[in-house]
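Section 5.1 Outputs to date
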Amino acid sequence: MEYRQLGNSGLKVPVLTFGTGTFGGNTELFKAWGTTDVAEATRLVDICLEAGLNMFDSADVYSKGVAEEILGQAIKGRRDQVLISTKGTFRMGPGPNDLGSSRYHITEAVNGSLKRLGVDHIDLYQLHSFDAQTPVEETLSTLDGLVKAGKIRYIGCSNYSGWHLMKSLSVSDRYGWSRYVAHQAYYSLVGRDYEWELMPLGLDQKVGGVIWSPLGWGRLTGKIRRGQPLPEASRLQSQLAVDKGPPVPFEHVYKVVDAIDEIAQETGKTVPQIALNWLLQRPSVSTIIVGARNEEQLRQNLGAVGWNLTPEQVAKLDQASALTPAYPVWHQRSTFGDRNPPAV
């Protein structure tokens, strides 16, 4: 397993992180992801640790806290061998303060996650989304206090826009508070918006990319192809899951998969392994979150490391997956491209 620095921190993380969204499955959305119980989760953790994958990502909202509880059971007795990252911000109760990034909710959320996980600290705590109703100063001072209290080691954010992240970093710098070292963001061969602003920002400000849904919300498993029905065991069978995930036209998916298939013939690797390996070669990426419903899927994902696509193969995938960027990026590149080149 390869390890990389997590942004502007001293923490080394594996290039693959195991995501626990498949643990529990006691809500309609997360049932579409998976229904892994404690016994199976423990087995998956065993395999991860054997391979050198020692970072596990969760969130309080995953199956309403059950995913964190199962992860806590699965790592019991080996806390010193693992890194735990989790997230909070989304609604966890019926009250007006049971969501968001206020001092009240963040404090309650962190304490709740610690209890469910059965640990005394969280290695990386990330805000699951930006809360525009709470002052950034309140949010960051609260996180800094939790770091100083020893409940959190490092802080990150998730699903922020460029200006959300840059404003937060500026406020941390102004007051000397703990700084975001990670941004958990969506990025895949069928979703490259991350490259337009978030990747250049991450490189400039040394914020490591923690990539979620690297297989395009189940579209790059190798089972989605032109003229074939969706596999029965796919989150894409759930309309709720489709609505909550990143939108991608199927024709674009087919175009990308066609290119991956050509490279699969050359390398002997699978579609998901190629999609993951492509991401591992992108700038600013510290770690990629991979999930698995079972041991077979996990071992296949682990096969994405230890080798590299050639520059020619990377270029082929780049070309097949390229889309016109949003304004003002397309304008900057077309009129002043020598001063605003792509980060990649």
